[in-house]
Amino acid sequence: MRQRLLYIVNPISGGKNKLPVYRAIRRHTDASRFDFSVCHTKAAGEAAIFARKAVAEGYDIVVAVGGDGTINEVAREVIHTKTALGIIPCGSGNGLARHLQLPMNPEKAVRIINQAVIHHLDYGLINGQPFFCTCGVGFDAFISLKFAQSDKRGLQTYIENVLSSGLNYKPDTYTIEDESGTVHHRAFLIACANASQYGNNAYIAPQASMKDGLMDVIIMEPFSAIEAPRIALQLFNKTLPKNSHIKMFQTRKVRITRSSDGPVHRDGDPSSTGAEITVELVHGEFPVVVNPNAKGRKRSFVQLVRDDIFELWDWQQNTIRRSGKSVAKQSRKLLQRIKVLPKSEE
Predict the structure, then answer these.
(1) pLDDT tens digits, residue range 111-129?
(2) What range does the domain containing 321 cover?
(3) Residues with Cβ < 8 Å from 61, sequence gap 6 or more?
């Protein structure tokens, strides 16, 4: 039986030209299996509107083509439905896509969608609002708020905000309650992770699973400035749980109380809430098209970056050849963009 498939494209996500992505969709979607159509958003919130309509009309898969914001808009509309989320990652962080080991190469991402292997994963709620990778309070929520207020996006802006604010941030004291009891912690941040990473291969909870019905709660205790580089490195090489300033436990539901109102984040999207925050996990109600060939999570950070670069390299070269442009000239420009070579003077 033929299936119905809708691509929802955010044309400005990640600051990337989407024409090659449109070509990948047109050329590689399995037309023998799917009746598919493409729409594109013009403003925040439209991806959710398109997804809601597709669910009501009985589409089998709705594919979010964009960054974490677009993906989350669509994901919120498919939970507890028979319509699955597909992903073509085109953002700067791509946290959910990276956790699921989906290709960064759009052509390969479309081929994953063609296989239509659907798993029913977990998602979380913070004060009743859905999140899919992580939510939290403390420093990461504070930085998410500053990042949202910045004129520029991307990893560089995020790092600049972290470096400029990190040394001046004042930790808070939290009361943390779950089914095992109540504890009090002075903490730099508290993160609740359904998935393993924030995005950009920054692993806050390397062992987190989206299928186990549990979230990983990470308490990062205050640390000195001299220890910050080590913590940053451990965040990227998946060894953060080994740090003595990190306390971790798993639970289905947790209540966090702080000294006053303030920011929280859900998948990097900041908002303000009261002093009391409730986070809980919903098991197996999030239908997602997954990568059936996903490997275990034993790849190092260097391997992850290398794999991303080679995937994008292959796609770029195929695009260049189809367009008839000089491969040598375009290759050098690509290398400059990924900072393998210094920028040449023209």
Answers:
(1) 999 999 999 999 999 999 9
(2) 309-346
(3) 3, 4, 5, 6, 34, 83, 84, 85, 86, 113, 116, 118, 289
